[in-house]
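Example 9 (inverse folding). The structure is encoded as follows.
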C-alpha cells in the first residue's frame, strides 16, 4: 500500500509528525504502522522512560492529553500510543484542542480501529493540518489474493493462484488473520518451494479437495459426482463449513457469471477486469457459461437468495444443513 510506504519512509528520513491518527475497518495496517513507530522512534534505552502505551477503554481524552504534554526524559522525543481508541468515539473530538497545538517533542499515535472520523468535525481537519491521518480500508475479496501474492513475494516466497484463493475462501478478508497463517507457512516452507494447496492442507489444515472453492468449480463444470461428495463432507463437518458461507460464495460466483454473459468482449483480460477476478480463473467462467445460460443463471441467483434466508431461519425452522445443501444442489444442477 503506497500510503503506508510513504508514512514509513517519511519516518525513516526523519520527517516525524507529532500526531498519527490511524483509523479504518482494516486493522492490519493500523497495527503495522503503530508497531513500526513503537520500535523505531526511540532507542531501546530511551523507551523505558519515554514510551507509553494506553488503551482507549481504560483512559479518557484528558488522560491522553496529559501524557502527551509531558516532556521527554534524556531523549529528544517521547512516544504515546493509544490502542483501541475506538472506545473513545463519543469524546474523541475533544482531542482537537491538543492537535491544534501539539507538543512537538511528543509523537502521539491514535489507533482508531473499525471506525473513522467525520470529515466535517474539527478533529479531522486538525489532524489533516498538523499530523498524519491514515484510513485503512478493507480490501475486496478479489484484491486479497493479490495482496497475499505480493506479501509473500516481498519476502522471497511464491504461491499458486489456487492456493491464494483457498486461503481467502477459508480465512476471509481479515489481513491480520491471513498474515498469521502466512507466518506459519514461512516457518515450514523454504523460499525455493512454491506454496500449493497441498502445502496449505498439510500445514494450515484446510482441505484442498473439500472446500467451497472446489465445490464452486465442480458446480461450474456440472460435475455432479464431485459436487455431491463435497456437499456430503460439508454435511458431516458443519462447524468447519457453515452453510451461509457456501451460499454466499455461490451467489457471488453466479452473479459474476451473469455479468460474464452480458459482456461482448470475452477475452481473458477484459473478463478478469470486468468481473473482478484473477485471469487464472477466467477459464472456469468460460466453462460455466456453456453449462448455464443466462436465463438459468438468473433463476439460480433467485434460488440462492431463498436458500440464504432459509439458512438464516427466515420462513422455516429446524432444517438441517445437510438438507439445505441437498436442496442447493438440486436447484442449481
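The amino acid assigned to each position is listed next.
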Amino acid at each position: 500500500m503506497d500510503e503506508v510506504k510513504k508514512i514509513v519512509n517519511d519516518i525513516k528520513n526523519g520527517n516525524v509528525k507529532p500526531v498519527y491518527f490511524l483509523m479504518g475497518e482494516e486493522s492490519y495496517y493500523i497495527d503495522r504502522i503503530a508497531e513500526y513507530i513503537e520500535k523505531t522512534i526511540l532507542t531501546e534505552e530511551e523507551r523505558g522512560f519515554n514510551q507509553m502505551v494506553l488503551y482507549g477503554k481504560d483512559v479518557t481524552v484528558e488522560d491522553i492529553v496529559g501524557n502527551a504534554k509531558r516532556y521527554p526524559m534524556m531523549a529528544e522525543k517521547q512516544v504515546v500510543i493509544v490502542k483501541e481508541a475506538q472506545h473513545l468515539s463519543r469524546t474523541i473530538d475533544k482531542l482537537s484542542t491538543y492537535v491544534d497545538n501539539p507538543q512537538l517533542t511528543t509523537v502521539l499515535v491514535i489507533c482508531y480501529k473499525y471506525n473513522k472520523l467525520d470529515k466535517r468535525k474539527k478533529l479531522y481537519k486538525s489532524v489533516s493540518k498538523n499530523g498524519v491521518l491514515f484510513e485503512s480500508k478493507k480490501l475486496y475479496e478479489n484484491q486479497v489474493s493479490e495482496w497475499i501474492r505480493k506479501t509473500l513475494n516481498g519476502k522471497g516466497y511464491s504461491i499458486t493462484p489456487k492456493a491464494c484463493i483457498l486461503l481467502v475462501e477459508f480465512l476471509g478478508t481479515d489481513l491480520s488473520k491471513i498474515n498469521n497463517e502466512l507466518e506459519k507457512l514461512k516457518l515450514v516452507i523454504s523460499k525455493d518451494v512454491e506454496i500449493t494447496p497441498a502445502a496449505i492442507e498439510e500445514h494450515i489444515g484446510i482441505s484442498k479437495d473439500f472446500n467451497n472453492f472446489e465445490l464452486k468449480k465442480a458446480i461450474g463444470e456440472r460435475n455432479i459426482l464431485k459436487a455431491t461428495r463435497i456437499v456430503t463432507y460439508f454435511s458431516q463437518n458443519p462447524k468447519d463449513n457453515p452453510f451461509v458461507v457456501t451460499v454466499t460464495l455461490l451467489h457471488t460466483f453466479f452473479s459474476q457469471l451473469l455479468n460474464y454473459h452480458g459482456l461482448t468482449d470475452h477475452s481473458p483480460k477484459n473478463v478478469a477486469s470486468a468481473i473482478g477476478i484473477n485471469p487464472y480463473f477466467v477459464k472456469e467462467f468460460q466453462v460455466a457459461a456453456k453449462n448455464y445460460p443466462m436465463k438459468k443463471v438468473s433463476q439460480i441467483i433467485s434460488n440462492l437468495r431463498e436458500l440464504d434466508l432459509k439458512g438464516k431461519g427466515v420462513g422455516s425452522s429446524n432444517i438441517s444443513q445437510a438438507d439445505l445443501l441437498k436442496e442447493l444442489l438440486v436447484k442449481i444442477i
